[in-house]
Design a protein that fits this description.
The chain is built from ten helices and nine strands. The chain is of the alpha/beta class and 311 residues long. The longest helix is centred in the C-terminal third of the chain and has 18 residues, at 260-277. The relative contact order is 0.14.
Amino acid sequence: MTGDIQNSNQKDNQQFKSGFATLIGRPNVGKSTLMNALIGQKIAITSKRPQTTRNRIRTVYTCEEGQIVFLDTPGIHKAKNKLGDYMVETAEGTLSEVDVVLWLVEPSDYIGAGERHIIEVLKNIKTPVILVINKIDTVKKELLLGYIDAYRKELDFAEIVPVSALKKDGMEILLSCILNYLPYGEPFYDEETVTDQPVRQIAAELIREKALRCLEEEIPHGIAVTIEQMKFKKKIVDIEATIVCEKDSHKGIIIGKQGAMLKKIGSLARRDIENLVEKQVNLKLWVRVKKDWRDSDYLLKNFGYNPSDTE
């Protein structure tokens, strides 16, 4: 009987694929939007501002054919502080740990310095690379072949897939391509799992997303959000969170006249957090100044950005 069970499991493993895929690219190419579209749920925050994603975010897509564990990484860019160093290290550190790499680019035949840096990085890995040309809804279809040819000359890609993450166009084709490069094996997570991120961390990121969208240009990169308290009750969740900024002048802008800006951020964040926890949320926001926190090893670690911890 035991032998029959083992044979049955081996047969299932030969039919089911399971592995890891990382999303890389320059800032603001749509990595988080694509990941949310692929798994069908909002986990990673998005905004029009570059460097929105700071940590490596792990999400899970499961279907009858297999399971894909996605790693959404910060955009690869020229770092200007220790937070930037951490973000680039996090992004480039995933390339040798996964089964397939998804490199997102915008639709263009111009390959700039940022893209060429990524090309040089990818030349040094053995992992299959799928080039994903995102935002195809913004260009004429007849131009796509030219964009594909421009990139095809630069690197031997396993696949080239044009998509629109915003419009959810090309998602099924891309998922099928990813599964082709995964090994056979048992799933890493149960089929109900969508992310391994703690609810507290996702809530903090949702608050930061709303701040990114509401605040002025010079402030967003200098903010972090910490959840001081999260209490789950029968019908409501009480959350106290702090928005950390670098300058006293920024604190006044974040709070706004008579607290209007802070109320706006809280109101927008509350809706998404309620969708996340499926309960009513009582959200209280505070603002605190921590000067130059992006260059402080202690504060970076305290806020969850720990370069020595890439798991």
